[in-house]
Amino acid sequence: MDNLKRMLVIMPCYNEQEVLHYTIETMQKLMSAWIKNKKISPSSKVCFVNDGSVDKTWDIISKAVSENEIFCGINLSRNFGHQGALLAGLYENDADVYVTIDVDLQDDPKCIEEMLSFIENGKDIVYGVRQSRDTDTFFKRASAQLFYRFLKVLGVNVIYNHADFRMMTKRAVNVLKQFPERNLFLRAIVPLIGFEDAKVYYDRTERTAGETKYPLKKMLALAWNGISNFSIIPLRLVTFLGFVFCFLGGIFILIVLYGWWTKGTIAGWASTITLVTALGGIQLLSLGIIGEYLAKVFIEVKKRPLFVVKDKIGLNQN
Ligand code: UDP
Ligand code: MG
């Protein structure tokens, strides 16, 4: 009778028992209001993806799903990481528009309404962009800023200050499904889809409860994925270094020969050892970089699944 969009809000959850109650309450209010005001279809849902939590996360999700049909849940067989959990939510559900947002509500869910209006106007992807990061720690802010700059230098196209809060139409998600890569860095893949996009700005707030599930180790892993999946500049750098050192080596040989010719002897163990050490270091580093890319190929060719679903509750059928 009407052409209201069926929206699906995907929330990855990893040991989030502290925040879930608040998030469930907030999302219930927001979704009911949007449905009442005819912004979205009444069959729209919020899908919690449990990414192998070891606390009560799945119990809380199951209870919410049994009490309110606005919620549904996907239980992954183990921890696959944030990006895997997002994909599980996108690929296992059928909807007209998909939103991905962190369950701790650091990204403002009220923006979803503004995102919807862009979709109504024919956009296919709407990025949520953080306007201020005042509530992040200095370290998180500085490292994130540095990361975006570095990616840009390396020629990787990501939206500045956009993490994984975005809305996509079914059409865009269908294109995303055609990207077969195992090494996931969604925020650099999504711009490759093309289609028309828009940005919505918001202030990032503090976590409502619990603590970050992105320790430095995971942050670094994600950052390296972002660089090595999308840029071959580190490899080019190795080649470039090779050229530079060949050139310097050539000059060095000329100097040595000249010394031998004019003075007859060559003093200089020190310079030899310095060169050997420096070159050894550069060679090992270069091999390491090449090895990293080789490792990527190794992982890609195995084509292992990015997530494994254990249970699904309350989902709309595809
Ligand atoms: N998350 C996940 N699997 C993981 C780590 C995190 O699904 O292995 C989820 C987490 O529950 C949250 C989102 O990813 O919904 C972002 O994590 P977090 O808020 O800890 O990151 P931060 O905001 O501190 O960068
Ligand atoms: Mg967070």
Beta-strand proportion: 15-25%
- Mind telling me the CATH superfamily name of the largest domain? Spore Coat Polysaccharide Biosynthesis Protein SpsA, Chain A
Q: How many extended strands?
A: 8
Structural class: alpha/beta
Ligands (ions, cofactors included): uridine-5'-diphosphate, magnesium ion
Q: Treating each run of at least 4 consecutive H or I residues as one helix, how many helices? A: 10
State the CATH topology of the largest domain: Spore Coat Polysaccharide Biosynthesis Protein SpsA, Chain A
Order of helices and strands: EHEHEHEHEHEHHEHHHE
Query: Class of the largest domain in CATH?
Result: Alpha Beta
How many domains would you count in the coordinates? 2
Strand order of the largest sheet: 7-5-6-4-1-2-3-8
Mean pLDDT: 89
Largest sheet: 8 strands, mixed
- Runs in which pLDDT lies below 50 for 5 or more consecutive residues are none
Please tell me the CATH architecture of the largest domain by its name. Alpha-Beta Complex
Summarize the structure.
It is built from ten helices and eight strands.
Question: How do the helices and strands line up, and which of them pair or pack?
Answer:
Blueprint: E1 7-13, H1 17-36, E2 45-50, H2 57-67, E3 71-76, H3 82-91, E4 97-100, H4 111-120, E5 125-132, H5 138-153, E6 162-169, H6 170-176, H7 186-193, E7 197-203, H8 216-230, H9 233-263, H10 269-302, E8 309-313
Helix pairs in contact: 1-2, 9-10
The structure holds uridine-5'-diphosphate (UDP) and magnesium ion.
